[in-house]
Amino acid sequence: MASSPKRTAHRHKQAPAWASRPAAVFQPADAEDTRRGHDEELTRRASKWCREIGATDLAGRVIVIWNTRLQTTAGTACPRNSTIELNPRLLQFGAAQVQRTLKHETAHLIAHWRHGRRRIQTHGVEWRTACVDLGIPGEPAFHELPLPRRKVSRKYAYQCRHCGFTVKRVQPFQPYTACYRCCKRYTGGKYHANFLFQRIPFPPAPVKSQPGTSA
Fold this sequence. Notes:
By secondary structure, the chain is α+β, with helices and mostly antiparallel strands.
């Protein structure tokens, strides 16, 4: 789905689910190894990646911190203040997982740095291009790490006015949110008002099969 990021925080979350990656083996964390606050080594690493793709001013601003308040997300990126927050529970899955998540979030910062104030999709072509530049082509938007999850009821439903694709949401869509499937098919992934989502009653009515067709 082609969705406009929030105007206020512009924070991108890497939610619990790497669709095409096997789940990592869960190992209890060492209580003494719970990290907090600014991580100088990871900040230097993210800064180096930014410089390598020419984002020298972003390289001077980026900062990486461990946020113990993160529960269900592996990491977040906030382009407004060039900050990456990582979940300390990532340490349970090894250095490679930490590096992968750090690159995922750094790609968000690079995508926004390249396109300035222009609104872009959270995991759209701009982010995917940045992932390629960081050496993680084909990076999925979500992971499958066994992080704690909480059930949240969905109470909003939307339908693409063009193809009829229906989606249920916990939070309402931002204004002018378009169907990414249609945008990708007809406009090369670029936003187009013809494919806007419109809110429908919740729960959505089941799709009825036509006579002579199988359900």
